[in-house]
Amino acid sequence: MSSQTPDDPGSIKADFIRIIQSFSNYLSFHKRSGIIFPKISEESETIIQSWRKGFSAQPSFCFEGPENASVFIIDSQTSLFKGEAGQLLSRILVAMGLSSDIVFICSSDEPRAVKEKIRKVSPKVIITLGEEAGRVLLGPGFSFEEQRGKFHEFEGIRVMPTLHPSLLLDQPQYKRRVWEDMKLVMEYAGLKNGS
To answer: Distances in Å between the alpha carbon of 102 and those of 23, 94, 132, 185?
Structure first.
C-alpha cells in the first residue's frame, strides 16, 4: 500500500476491507493446515469470521443528481461538481438550459457500476468528459482526438465525448469546441438554449 493517504474514502474503505479479508483468509488457511499459533477466544473467532461475511470489497460508486435523469455525464475525474472545473461545468449546463440538480453525473472510476447504471436507467444522452470517461463506454480503441465532438453509441444510447472542464481552465481557447459539442447534444435531446 502507498505511504500516501488516498483522498477517496471509497478507496480507503476498499483497501481496509481487502486487508481484513486477507487476514481472515490467512487465519483460516493456518487453521486448516494445522499450523499451531496462540489460541484466540471464541468471541474473537466470531468477530474474525464476521469480517469475511459482513463486507463487500466493491468500492463505492461516486455520483450526484437524480439517478433517473435523461442526461448522464461521465467524468474522467472524481471532482464531479466541485472546484473551478465543477463551477465551469455548471455554467455550461445552465447555458444548455440544464442545471446540476437535473443531470446525473458520476466518476468513470468504476466502469462496471457506470455501465450497470446506464443499462438500468437508459438515459436519452450521455456526455463523457475527458479521454478516460470516453474509453469506459466506447472501449480501449477510443481515440479522443478523432472521436471527440461526434455522436457515438453505447448499447443504443447516444454518447458525446467532449473535453474536460479542467482542460478549459488551462486552455480557454478550447471552450468553443465544447460549446459546439453541447449544441449537438441540445439539438438531439430537444433542449432549447436558455429555456
So the answer is: 44, 11, 24, 15
The cell for 133 is 470517461
User: Which grid cell sits at 105?
Assistant: 453525473
Q: pLDDT at residue 142 above 70?
A: yes
CATH no., domain 63-189 = 3.40.470.10
Helices marked H in the chain: 9-33, 42-54, 83-96, 111-121, 131-138, 144-147, 165-170, 175-189
Burial of 42 (0-12, 13-18, 19+ CB in 10 A): exposed
Residue 45 has pLDDT above 90, yes or no: no
Q: Is the pTM of this model over 0.70?
A: no
Q: Residues 2-7: what's their mean pLDDT?
A: 48
**Which grid cell sits at 65?**
443528481
Measured torsion, CA atoms of residues 48, 50, 54, 58, in degrees rounded to the nearest 10: 30
The answer to whether the Cα torsion of 141, 113, 101, 153 is positive or negative is positive
**Helices and strands in the chain: count of H runs, count of E runs:** 8, 6
Coil, helix or strand at residue 3 = coil
* Contact between residue 78 and residue 130 where contact means Cβ atoms under 8 Å apart: no
pLDDT one-digit tens code per residue, 95-138: 999 987 789 999 888 899 999 999 999 999 999 999 999 999 99
Calculate mean pLDDT across residues 6-12: 61
